[in-house]
Specification:
By secondary structure, this protein is of the alpha/beta class. It has one domain: Thiamin diphosphate (ThDP)-binding fold, Pyr/PP domains (Rossmann fold, 3-Layer(aba) Sandwich). The protein is built from eleven helices and eight strands.
Length: about 280
């Protein structure tokens, strides 16, 4: 399947050299790899530079409010389980105001994919420190250096038992496309965390910085302890599928509830709530 059919008529307007271009092309490739029908795909995006991505992909799109990618994506999936639902947003949108939704999504395990584009900065609003900005880094809101420790997103996903955890980077779009395709195929909540340099506002996490640290190894995705150890490596950024497990999805659990409820008369259900 040609990936051009997934391109919308709108051209991306990101800064020259922005890693979001690579994520955009990787997503198009992943949709083509999976040979998905445009009408059966829903793409939900958040606020920030990366939030524009929903406008550039020719599928059902929803540009939601700040930090609400996961609640919106889940609502769409529960309303129409046949859809392939993908969420996309940045580290500020997904790990800041929207960070609290990750744990609750993980425990429900809906069959959705979430792409988090991590440039460790708030790019759209001119370079403020984000949840993943390293301590002591200077930004527009931390001119004397960031006083907070940065989050460790991979360790957080693993602690929440997200059922598919992968990490990619924008300088290898073909590999990133394959990771996204695997995440879409996985039955359950899948996160693809993308190291995505911002050439305009983040002068620390640059392409050169990533090239020096990225390691593409062969990992046992069933070994959660190994995945935790990789997440604690402060010198290297490990790329690939780090963890994968299979457990009932939210849709499967809801189907069982519907089956039980469907055997009862409506008056019988109402009577259960009488005091």
């Amino acid at each position: 399947m040609k990936l051009d059919i997934f391109k919308s008529t709108k051209d991306p307007i990101w800064c020259v050299g922005c890693g979001d271009f690579s994520v955009y092309n990787a997503l198009l490739r992943a949709l083509a790899i999976r040979e998905l029908d445009q009408k059966n795909v829903a793409l939900v995006s958040g606020i920030g530079c990366s939030g524009q991505i929903a406008a550039y992909v020719s599928v059902n799109g929803f540009h939601t409010i700040h930090g609400r990618v996961l609640p919106t994506a889940q609502a769409i999936k529960y309303a129409n389980p046949k859809l392939t639902v993908i969420g996309a947003g940045g580290d500020g949108d997904g790990l800041g105001i929207g960070g609290g939704h990750i744990s609750h999504t993980a425990k429900r395990n809906p069959d959705i994919t979430y792409i988090i584009m991590d440039n460790s900065i708030y790019g759209l609003t001119k370079g403020q420190a984000s949840p993943t900005t390293p301590c002591e880094q200077k930004t527009s809101t931390t001119p004397y250096g960031n006083f907070e420790d940065n989050l460790n997103p991979i360790a957080m996903y693993l602690a929440y038992d997200v059922s598919f955890v992968a990490q990619g980077w924008t300088l290898e779009p073909q590999g990133l496309a394959e990771l996204i395709a695997q995440a879409i195929e996985h039955p359950g909540f899948a996160i693809v965390h993308v190291r995505d340099p911002c050439p305009t506002y983040n002068k620390v996490m640059t392409k050169e910085y990533l090239k020096e640290r990225v390691v593409k190894g062969t990992y046992d995705p069933t070994n959660k302890l190994q995945a935790f150890e990789l997440s604690q490596d402060s010198e290297k950024i490990h790329i690939g599928v780090l963890y994968k497990t299979f457990k009932p999805t939210a849709e499967q659990r809801l189907d069982k509830i519907r089956e039980k409820a469907g055997k009862k008369e409506l008056t019988e259900i109402f009577n259960e709530f009488k005091v």
